[in-house]
């Protein structure tokens, strides 16, 4: 007969403690395979507990497979292969990623959080809770809530010259997620072309998905179309409004050349990555390539993470009709990855004009900050050995330093000063040497005091 001291159960229920004691005896081999357990009534009388307590303990052991019930015969122990010897092993604790702190991070396109309209955004969120109520609890459509898609379509029409239907827009948690969906949509037989130099993260996504890709060199007008033909590229990935990191703006003639290339063969597409398009410091943005597309070959992508806050993971893509039909028929089982609450709030933020005013304030702030930072560099001793290349868009500029240090040595020396920085050569897939000594400076969240320390550090390194 099983004998246990049930007074040691602590805060556990009686049945739970009994279940654990019997399970431990089975695991330790004290109760052998095929050994018969006491009847429920017999064990309850022996331990002076209720039959229900024993029944609950046996039911849990049955559920987990430690024992079996044989009709009209009772309960028997199942054979459990237990590894014996030594104390139970525990996995070593995982070393968690820890963010380091720096004097200045010139690699990240951060925002000035004191420029974000927290009060307005909080107001919109409260109104969203009231206005949409139970709608926030419903399943979000695979392509995103209609209100946000309509607000985006109207925004693109007014600011990018695009005539698009809300039915052609897909909402997702950032462009990285949408790129993965797009790769699946286009299929495995496609060859992608990326700008050289260009944004490296996209090629990492391509590599992770086993995608065939090649780099395509750029000139002073953007991606070379003749290389697209030479390398048998099917899909060209470009950032025409503000190339990163060079910063050039693709002229209309090259945009039309790209459109002609795409229209010439079936299955060719252009991915227009329009990041940073809102941050044009002078004049109006050039209408997007998509706005000139008459052959339905442009896939337009953008995100609110750059203009709002990075934690607001709302990206979107506009698909041509043929690809949208394919997405609906083959991929509409994917759930939308952005909460309905955030989508309704973002829609209201756009519809009520808050987004437009927010962008105007940011552009004015960045324009003044850019001019001041560039002036401080030019007035420093660095001006003797450096040149600033700045364009009229985006939140970074290039600093070309005349130095004998290699780019690797530059990064190491700057790192020792508590500064993170990237060199232009890091964004190259070929011919990196011709960009030696060119630093990519992100300035969007840099204050004057930090900038003075950065300039002093650069002077110590390069002079």
From TrEMBL:
Organism: Lachnospira eligens CAG:72
Listed Pfam families: Aminotran_1_2, GntR
Highest taxon, organism lineage: Bacteria
GO function term, MF aspect, one: DNA-binding transcription factor activity
SUPFAM superfamilies membership: PLP-dependent transferases, Winged helix' DNA-binding domain
Domain HTH gntR-type: 12-80
Keyword flag Acetylation: no
Keyword Coiled coil belongs to the record: no
Family statement drawn from the similarity comment of this UniProt entry: In the C-terminal section; belongs to the class-I pyridoxal-phosphate-dependent aminotransferase family.
PROSITE patterns noted in UniProt: HTH_GNTR
Entry keyword set: Aminotransferase, DNA-binding, Pyridoxal phosphate, Transcription, Transcription regulation, Transferase
Annotated protein name in UniProt: GntR family transcriptional regulator / MocR family aminotransferase
């Amino acid at each position: 007969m099983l004998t246990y001291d049930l007074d040691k159960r602590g805060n556990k229920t009686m049945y739970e403690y009994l279940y654990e004691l019997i399970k431990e005896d089975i695991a330790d081999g004290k109760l052998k395979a095929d050994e018969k357990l006491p009847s429920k009534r017999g064990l309850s009388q022996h331990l002076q507990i209720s039959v229900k307590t024993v029944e609950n303990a046996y039911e849990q052991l049955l559920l987990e497979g430690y024992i079996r019930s044989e009709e009209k015969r009772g309960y028997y122990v199942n054979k459990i292969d237990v590894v014996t010897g030594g104390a139970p092993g525990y996995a070593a604790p995982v070393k968690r990623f820890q963010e380091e702190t720096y004097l200045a991070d010139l690699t990240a396109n951060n925002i000035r959080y004191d420029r974000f309209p927290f009060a307005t955004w909080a107001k919109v969120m409260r109104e969203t809770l009231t206005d949409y109520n139970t709608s926030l609890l419903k399943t979000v459509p695979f392509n995103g809530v209609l209100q946000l898609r309509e607000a985006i379509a109207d925004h693109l029409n007014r600011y990018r010259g695009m005539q698009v239907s809300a039915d052609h827009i897909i909402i997702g948690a950032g462009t990285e997620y949408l790129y993965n969906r797009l790769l699946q949509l286009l299929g495995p037989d496609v060859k992608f072309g990326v700008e050289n130099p260009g944004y490296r993260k996209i090629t990492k996504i391509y590599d992770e998905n086993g995608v065939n890709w090649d780099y395509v060199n750029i000139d002073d007008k953007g991606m070379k179309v003749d290389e697209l033909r030479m390398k048998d590229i099917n899909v060209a990935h470009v950032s025409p409004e503000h190339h990163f990191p060079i910063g050039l703006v693709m002229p209309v003639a090259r945009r039309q050349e790209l459109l002609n290339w795409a229209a010439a063969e079936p299955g060719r597409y252009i991915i227009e990555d329009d990041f940073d398009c809102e941050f044009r410091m002078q004049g109006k943005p050039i209408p997007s390539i998509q706005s000139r597309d008459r052959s339905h070959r442009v896939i337009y992508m953008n995100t609110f993470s750059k203009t709002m806050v990075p934690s607001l993971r709302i990206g979107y893509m506009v698909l041509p009709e043929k690809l949208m039909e394919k997405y609906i028929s083959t991929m509409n089982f994917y759930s939308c990855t952005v909460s309905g609450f955030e989508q309704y709030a973002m829609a209201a933020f756009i519809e009520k004009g808050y987004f437009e005013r927010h962008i105007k304030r940011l552009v004015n702030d960045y324009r003044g900050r850019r001019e001041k930072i560039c002036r401080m560099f030019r007035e420093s001793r660095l001006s003797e050995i450096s040149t600033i290349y700045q364009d009229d868009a985006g939140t970074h500029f290039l600093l070309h330093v005349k130095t004998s240090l290699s780019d690797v040595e530059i990064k190491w020396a700057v790192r020792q000063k508590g500064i993170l920085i990237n060199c232009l050569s890091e964004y190259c897939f070929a011919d990196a040497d011709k960009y030696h000594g060119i630093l990519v400076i992100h300035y969007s969240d840099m204050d004057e005091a930090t900038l003075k320390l950065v300039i002093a550090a650069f002077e110590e390194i390069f002079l």
